[in-house]
Amino acid sequence: MEVLVPFSADRPKSRLADALSPSERAAFVRTMLADVLAAIDDAGGDPLLLATEAFDPTDEPTVPLDPPVAVDDRPLTDAVNALLAERRPGDGTDPVAIVMADLAIATPESFRELFAVGRETGVAIAPGRGGGTNALVVSRPEFRVDYHGASYLDHREIATDAGLSVETIDSHRLATDVDEPGDLAEVLIHGEGRAATWLRETGFALDASGGRVAAVRK
Ligand SMILES: Nc1nc2c(ncn2[C@@H]2O[C@H](COP(=O)(O)OP(=O)(O)OP(=O)(O)O)[C@@H](O)[C@H]2O)c(=O)[nH]1
Ligand SMILES: C[C@H](OP(=O)(O)O)C(=O)O
């Protein structure tokens, strides 16, 4: 299955500005991307990087694969919809998945489940905490995305209005995207890849002294 992986190469993770400097954010998002690409590949998916600007994964020491790259500087929703309009998933073709590049604790097993459910239904959605859409499988050509805000609810409504069946993927690993400093603790707790290693090497460790466990830089 082709898996579109949107990647904001030019303005990565502004909401992590309180925890990481601009160059650290640029490095950290590449480690998350590397982990996501490796897990997709392991699960049998064929990633296509949908990047906001020219990006050569082979220049990146953390990125182990050399996926094809499509460059599109339009906003996320427009860029994804342009590819869906081209691919026409389900119109005699395979479903298409869209997986965000910040799912730092996703595993091959979690993607295998997503792809399997996605093949059986019109639209399969793995919501993010807070109502976003962390991963999606589209098996019908008429479906279009509308990201940002409570996009999980919007995507359910778009699918239902188009008469398509919808399945929700109940997965902690796919529900955890790394948006804010508080999410870094999840990577230290559950991550097994390059992103977790990078955080540790950058000096982050778990700290429970303030009550809720947090990732704190020592
Ligand atoms: N191609 C493309 N990818 C995007 C764009 N905006 C975000 N992404 C990617 O989409 C996924 C989800 O992004 P968000 O968490 O909404 O935003 P972000 O840009 O990573 O972070 P913030 O700057 O903190 O909002 C990540 O994989 C981003 O790299 C865009 O305009 N175009
Ligand atoms: C793209 C957006 O991501 P979030 O900002 O919710 O992480 C969404 O899932 O609609």
TrEMBL record:
Looking up InterPro entries in the UniProt record yields: CofC, Nucleotide-diphossugar_trans
One GO MF term on file is: phospholactate guanylyltransferase activity
Please cite one Gene Ontology biological process associated with this protein: F420-0 metabolic process
- Could you tell me what reaction this enzyme catalyses? (2S)-2-phospholactate + GTP + H(+) = (2S)-lactyl-2-diphospho-5'-guanosine + diphosphate
Assembly and oligomerization:
Homodimer.
Against NCBIfam families, the record matches this protein to: F420_cofC
Protein's name in the database: 2-phospho-L-lactate guanylyltransferase
Name the source organism. Halorubrum rubrum
